[in-house]
Amino acid sequence: GLRCSSSRRTPASWSPLFTIDVKTGVLQAEGKKLGLVGWVQNTESGTVQGQLQGPKNKVRQMQDWLKSTGSPKSQIIKAEFKNEKNVESLDYSAFSIIRS
């Protein structure tokens, strides 16, 4: 008989780097809630930088959250995203906070 095999490729994930003034713990929780992976880290200048990876629509949701909501008591002055690109596979298995 005929055999039909469907090779299901995982859709490419989206991977932007970001810098923002927001608390790392709240950012990590929001990223996990959306099913994203990556990392966040406080910088010496008082901002937070990191990298998100996951389905493009979920990354876009997180970017919108970073630009408009952020953590309680945080005032979003600027959210900057760069090096946005498609990735074939995720570089991270979780969403972690890197301690300086």
TrEMBL record:
Domain Acylphosphatase-like: 27-99
Gene3D superfamilies, A to Z: 3.30.70.100
Protein family per UniProt: Belongs to the acylphosphatase family.
Protein's UniProt name: Acylphosphatase-1
EC number: 3.6.1.7
Organism lineage string: Eukaryota, Metazoa, Chordata, Craniata, Vertebrata
MF terms in GO: acylphosphatase activity
Swiss-Prot/TrEMBL keywords: Hydrolase
Gene from which the chain derives: ACYP2
